[in-house]
Structure formats: C-alpha cells, structure tokens
Design a protein that fits this description.
mainly alpha, single chain, 7 helices, disordered C terminus, 0% strand, 136 residues, globular
C-alpha cells in the first residue's frame, strides 16, 4: 500500500476499511475525508464508490441514527439503478429491514439474481475489487 496511487479512490477506500479493522479510526477518517473530497470534485457522489464511502463512515461513527441516515442515502443510490449489485451488497449490511428479516434478505438476494448478479458471494473480495466490465 505504500506505493499506492493516492488518487485511486477505490484503493483509498479499501485502505480506510483495513485501518478500521485495525481500529485505527483517526487515520481511516482522514483517508475517508480525502476520498470524499476526490469523489465530490469528480461529481461522483451518487455512485458505487460514494455508497462504499458512506458505508465506511458508519463503521467509524457507530451511531445508530447516523447509520440509518447513511442507509437511506445508499438506498437512494440503489433505487436509481437496482442492477448495482455492489450497492445492494452494502445495503445488506446497512439496512435494518434486511438485518431484521432473514426472509427479506433472501428475497432481496433473489431480486439481485434476477437483475443479473450470478456471483455466489457478491463482493467476496470486497464490493469494489478492481474489475472492468459487468458484474459477475
């Protein structure tokens, strides 16, 4: 990660997630702030990377009300294009609806399959692994 391109937003987001798992919240927060600035500068505040950013901020804040607000924003991103399986993957972790109901979670996953996601484990290497092309 030392030689990583600092302008590579997905790599920076993943780096922040790794720091969060190590409980290095201040460093992760700093990286997330810079990633948000880059996404805002690119006008990319409605895409998959922004949804990932929002998800990561909930891991730092750990406030149920904040998580609910971010889940609503991610839900809006998902509603714009329901074939975004990476955003759907994040919703499985953020949405109270899917966390409360196993059957609701399975119905949601079935819809993702109908939309074309055929991966046995969506995002098994992370929701934003480096890939060009369509979802698997």
């Amino acid at each position: 990660m030392v030689t990583m391109d600092e302008k590579d937003v997905p790599a920076r987001l993943f780096q922040a997630q790794l720091l969060i798992t190590e409980e290095r919240y201040n460093e992760a927060g700093w990286i997330l702030d810079h990633a948000a600035d880059m996404l805002e500068a690119r006008g990319a505040t409605g895409g998959e990377q922004w949804a990932y950013y929002l998800y990561l901020t909930t891991l730092i804040h750990r406030d149920p009300q904040y998580t609910l607000q971010m889940a609503e924003q991610v839900e809006q991103i998902y509603r714009y294009d329901r074939t975004r399986w990476r955003v759907a993957w994040l919703l499985l972790y953020l949405s109270e609806e899917y966390n409360r109901s196993t059957s609701g979670k399975w119905m949601f996953l079935e819809k993702q399959y109908q939309y074309g996601c055929t991966s046995p484990v969506p995002g098994s290497t992370g929701p934003f692994e480096r890939q060009s092309g369509a979802a698997t």
